[in-house]
Amino acid sequence: GYYFIASNDGIMEAIKESGIAFSNRPGGISPGFDLRWATPVKGLKVGGSLMMYDAKGNLTNGSYYQPLAYWPAAYAQYEGKKLFLSYEYTKLVQYQTVTITGSAPSTSGINTPSWFAMGGYHLTDKLQAGIYYTGFLVASAADNSDPANYFHDWAASSRYDINSNFYAKLEGHLINGNAAGFYDFNNPNGLQSKTKVVVAKVGFTF
User: What is the 8-class DSSP label of residue 188?
Assistant: First the structure.
């Protein structure tokens, strides 16, 4: 398909904070595929996917071009009577070229591997408890000890199925690093290297 990045999208906010200002929304193509295999082991599935996309757009003082990026992922999932386990690893390598009017083109790239592992257990038919870990690293950065270049999140969670349609969730997070999900515009005093947060949610499925 073809896409445009919304003006209030998180990706666009990160681009703005890097000093790039668009005169129109950038967009591009987004081909990809997903392959899954239900293995002979009951409840175990493995798979892989590949997302691809490029982008181009006009800046207020130049042009922006991002050649086709490749974002592969591999994952596995096991689901038994009471136990649920899941793992995924993905790695994005992406380049972009910014051309400012009157200046030579400037090309930069990023290399960001990320992964997660999670497990859940049904304590009762309606109550499930779980734990998961998420990791994200800007491997192309010069200093990987800088909190701006990594993100590690340990989380404990619980879910209660109120009925067949409604559920409630409660999670506690211990986050080390700020390379993902944080923005300067709503943190005027700067980003902390560590974050603690509790999240409550009520959801509906049909």
Answer: T
From residue 185, give the alpha-carbon distance in Å to each of 14, 25, 59, 131, 190.
10, 20, 21, 31, 9
In sequence order, what E strands does the chain have?
Answer: 2-4, 27-29, 32-38, 44-59, 62-79, 83-100, 106-122, 127-137, 150-161, 166-176, 194-204
Half-sphere exposure for 186 (CA within 13 Å, toward CB): 6
Bridge partners (DSSP) listed for residue 97: 65, 107
Q: Which helix (H) or strand (E) holds 12?
A: helix 10-17
Task: Give the Cα separation of 86 and 100 in Å (integer).
Answer: 45
Cα 157 to Cα 79: distance, rounded to the nearest angstrom = 17
pLDDT tens digit at each of 206 positions of the chain: 888 888 778 888 877 877 788 888 888 999 999 999 999 999 999 999 999 999 888 888 888 888 889 999 999 999 998 999 999 999 998 888 888 887 888 888 888 999 999 999 999 999 999 999 999 999 888 888 899 899 999 999 999 999 999 999 999 999 999 988 788 878 888 889 999 999 999 999 88
With 0-12 CB in 10 A as exposed, 13-18 as middle and 19+ as buried, what is 18? Answer: exposed
What's the whole-model pTM score? Answer: 0.81
